[in-house]
Amino acid sequence: MIKNTIFYILLISILTASCHSPKGDVNEPNVEEPSLEEMAGQMVMAGFRGLTADAVSSGFIGQIKEKKVGGVILFDYDLVKKSGGRNIESPDQVKQLISALQNQAETSLFVAVDQEGGMVNRLKTKYGFPKIASAKYLGDLDNTDTTSYYARKNAKNLNELGFNVNFAPVVDLDLNPKNPVIGKYERSFSSDIDKVVNHSAVWIGEHEFEGVISTLKHFPGHGSSDADSHEGFTDVTPYWKEAELEPFRQLLLPERKMAVMTAHVFHKDLDSIYPATLSPNVIDGILRKKWNYQGLVFSDDLQMKAVNKLFDFETIIERSILAGVDVLVYGNNLEYDENIPTKVVETIVKLVEENKIEKERIKQSYERIMEMKERLAE
């Protein structure tokens, strides 16, 4: 009788302890970690063709459903076909398209656009969207109230349409007025650091209020270049100044809903082999280690010739991830490959299986992405 009583007391004690186990205790069921393929899929942002969900190919929609796409980017003009009507036709059409794509995704998508204002403007007035002034106009005017007005108008429009990522503002210093990709298109606020920081901060704040991520570009600075990284190798060694880092350093605050986009520029004193997007010296060395920035890093379009003509597909992915990039962007507008998301995911898995990239590195990017998506849902 005494033995039975002791047995029941011990049993009750064990059961009681189990019922009150802290979260994460061995008695609690573990939350299943996403597969490597799913984590890799969140790292992929791709462009596509189609004005409506029905017009988007079943192959691309299938990749969204299969969790091989973490984000999409929209364009109004198809550079490969040399024709308009790619993804953007009118406000109602864009809103319906984005909503339909989100409905296909189990995890919400990053939906991005290059909506800087001025000449880099996918949501044009001819489609029925509001006019947004260029960064140069706003910097020359140097009235932050005016910048706030246009930034608010831009952000509100993006939010209403369903975009949650804007690849803007450009925080490159306007050091070369003849720069064929920055100065020529009036994309920079100024050559003055304070002006760039002040107007960018206003822009970021208005977008954050509307739940849209601002993306500072192009790190570590593209404003002094004399070449266009869309077209080929872009060596900024003779021109780049350390001051070009300063707007990024001052603006990248962890509490803000923002990200940074890399540039495909090459500087032999920063990295003698790789352009910035593929360089651990630049991204991991400066952003992550020197500045302790732990937020999101988007690559610039990895189909641009400054990387695409110099390195093979697998090397670009491997080196970008090792450098510190979280989201690999394939605009699919300089060349078109509907199956690019699947190819990227398969390549990442292969690189991990071959021990060229640690699985923990993929998990690190996945967690950054999911944290931002959760913040956007708040």
Overview of the molecule:
The protein is of the alpha/beta class. The protein folds into two domains: 1-31; 37-376, Glycoside hydrolase, family 3, N-terminal domain (TIM Barrel, Alpha-Beta Barrel). It is 40% helix and 11% strand. The strands form three sheets. It has an eight-stranded parallel β-sheet with strand order 11-10-9-8-5-2-1-12, sandwiched between helices. A two-stranded antiparallel sheet has the order 3-4. Strand 10, helix 9 and strand 11 form a beta-alpha-beta unit. The longest helix has 18 residues, at 2-19.
Features:
about 375 residues, alpha/beta, TIM Barrel, 2 domains, 8-stranded parallel β-sheet, two-stranded antiparallel ribbon, 13 helices, about 40% helix
The end-to-end span amounts to 59 Å
Count of DSSP H/I helices: 13
Beta fraction? 5-15%
Number of domains: 2
Q: What's the SSE pattern? A: HHEHEEEHEEEHHEHEHEHEHHEHH
Low-pLDDT segments:
1-29
CATH topology type of the largest domain: TIM Barrel
Fraction of helical residues: 25-40%
According to CATH, what is the class of the largest domain? Alpha Beta
Could you say what the CATH architecture of the largest domain is? Answer: Alpha-Beta Barrel
- Based on helices, strands and strand pairing, what is the structural class? alpha/beta
Anisotropy-based shape: globular
How is the largest sheet built, in terms of strand order?
Answer: 11-10-9-8-5-2-1-12
Going by CATH, the homologous superfamily of the largest domain would be Glycoside hydrolase, family 3, N-terminal domain
Rg computed from alpha carbons, rounded to a whole number of angstroms:
23 Å
